[in-house]
Amino acid sequence: MWCEIVSLLRSLGSALMSYFDAKKKRKVAEIYQALNSDPIDVAALRRMAISEGGLLTDEIRCKVWPKLLSVNTDDLPPLPAGKELREDNKVTSKCYWTVRRSLRRFPPGMPDDQREGLQEELIDIILHVLKRNPQLHYYQGYHDIVVTFLLVVGDRLATALVEKLSTHHLRDFMDPTMDNTKHILNYLMPIIDQVNPEVHDFMQSAEVGTIFALSWLITWFGHVLSDFRHVVRLYDFFLACHPLMPIYFAAVIVLHRQQEVLECECDMASVHHLLSQIPQDLPYESLISKAGDLFVQFPPSELAKEAAQQQAERTAASTFKDFELASVQQRPDTVLRQRFRERLRGEERLRGEERTKSILTKPRTNRFVKLAVMGLTVALGAAALAVVKSALEWAPKFELQIFP
């Protein structure tokens, strides 16, 4: 009997492996079909980057990431001249020492000489982007994003991608002050409030603020996640979406841990300590899906009405419509909304099938309907969300160790 069970399990495992291999092959074929179409089907590439598994391999990312950022790979800038950059750059020292301390961002077991060579390339890329864009300012954590691109696509392509990213998605983090960064963090609590007011009120009572999510946001989680596979999976998602998607993902992490939060001591130190220690075993695909759903249910344009409007007008999130995309169909917001509608129709079909079964069968809970109902309270909740306007002054008067 035991031998039969083992044999059955092996057969099931083999069948599952075959299924996932076939599914992966289909997705790879769809990605290359989008890349080879004329014109390139950027909307399809966005869907592939958002959907389960993301872009699958670094080889594919080298081809798709430039398309998501509208970077022409046929006209890449020359490699940065390191010696000249370092002699004529005011941030060289700060950048140098920050990068030198970034050992954990390189693959374990990498030979010292190879790692040191990559660190030199990392410094050159950063200095090159800053020299070409003097309006941008280096911030601690920027190198965590740059090194991800360097490890995936190499120095020359990374330079072009990082420059485009720095002048669009990351622009607000690279201002002389943190005002716009703080404003973006202000979206976190309204998102949480729409989904789980109890968690929102608890965090407000604890006066924890949003500083625990600062390193998440400004490094696109690159600094806090130890598994590089999870980092690049998130980058697939963020590159295919609106610049504010990282803050939606931060919100779903908090919501995923809602039980831990509510069981925590209701004081700033305890809640901050809990939330700043991000789990490494998160259900990433599920959270990515939920973040996309929340973006559609509670878009930034609605949440921004309750934030500091004058400051919102200066952020990259508010000017994303000007980003260099070829057509309306290629906008990431459109892709997310289409994906959400398809999922919603799927849920409706499933509910219809459930109604045809026995009346004793409990119908499935439709989380989209719940979110839609919550969405109706947005207009009525303006007074409650107005507290966000005062959150621009949340920053503690003492220094916190944001980057351990």
Largest sheet: none
Cα shape? globular
Helix-strand sequence: HHHHHHHHHHHHHHHHHHHHHH
Radius of gyration: 23 Å
Instruction: Indicate the proportion of strand residues.
Output: under 5%
Please give the count of helices: 22
Distance between the termini: 54 Å
Mean pLDDT, to the nearest integer, reads 80
Uncertain segments of ≥5 residues (pLDDT<50)? 324-329, 356-404
Strand-pairing-aware structural class: mainly alpha
Helical percentage: 55-70%
| Strand runs, count | 0
Describe the structure.
With 404 residues, this protein is mainly alpha-helical. It has 22 helices and no strands. Helix 14 (245-256) packs across helix 17. The termini are far apart. Mean pLDDT is 80; it is low at 324-329 and 356-404.
Task: Summarize this structure briefly.
With 404 residues, the protein is mainly α. The protein has helices at residues 2-36, 42-50, 58-68, 82-87, 92-100, 112-132, 142-153, 155-166, 179-185, 188-195, 197-206, 214-218, 228-239, 245-256, 258-263, 268-276, 284-297, 300-303, 309-312, 332-355, 367-375, 382-385. It is 60% helix and 0% strand.
